[in-house]
Amino acid sequence: MNLSWTDFWNDLPARPFDGVGLEPGVLWPALAILVIVLVWAPARRWGRTLVTIVHEAGHAAVGLMVGRRFLGFVVSRDLSGHAVTAGKPDGPGRVLTTWAGYPAPAALGAAVVLLALHGWASVVLVMGLVILAVLLVMSRSIRTAGLVLLVGLLTGALWWWGGAWRAGVASGVGLALIVGAWDSLRDVAVSREPEQDHRTLARLTGTPAALWLVTWFLVDAAATGAVVLVVRDLL
Prior knowledge:
By secondary structure, this protein is mainly α. It has helices at residues 5-11, 24-39, 41-65, 92-99, 104-138, 142-161, 166-190, 197-205, 209-234; strands at 69-75, 81-86. The chain has 9 helices and 2 strands; from the N terminus they run αααββαααααα. The chain has a two-stranded antiparallel ribbon. The two termini are 37 Å apart. Keywords: Membrane, Transmembrane, Transmembrane helix.
């Protein structure tokens, strides 16, 4: 199918607003993606890549909101990540910035699912493309830039060509983010590395590191519960 630039620009304004309402049929692609992520290890690993990007974006977004500067981020070969923000080495802003990484995938995943299932999938995808464009600029390694670019291309393809599948696939990605959030919380809970976020928070605040694990657990549980309630109404 040939598509001229005139057709592209005429069609572009309508793309973000062609969503569907809350319909049971939208749910099945989402559940299919969820099952694939749960039972197929490579899919879960690729999902972990997206979780790492969102985790670091969470640090960056909250850091910017509290007045810190976002200097860049990297995704390592083992799919761990590191975001760099500049500002005061302690205080509430540093605490909030450090805390924000682990709950970000669950919070974003729930938001994506709820918005997509209520007809806002295209808007979510456009917002995702904008954020990914910023993250691409702030990537500080070839691997990181490549992964962000790949996610951006897939997001753009879903937005442009997703059609009736758009909401279901977007919701499935949201569910995968929630699964990944639980996986990363499990991993950090059993880790003994001294530079993990909850131990950094303990040093910054003088509170037990386990307390911060509990706060992340509560966010993950709330996000999961909100999605379960919506999915239950559709089944």
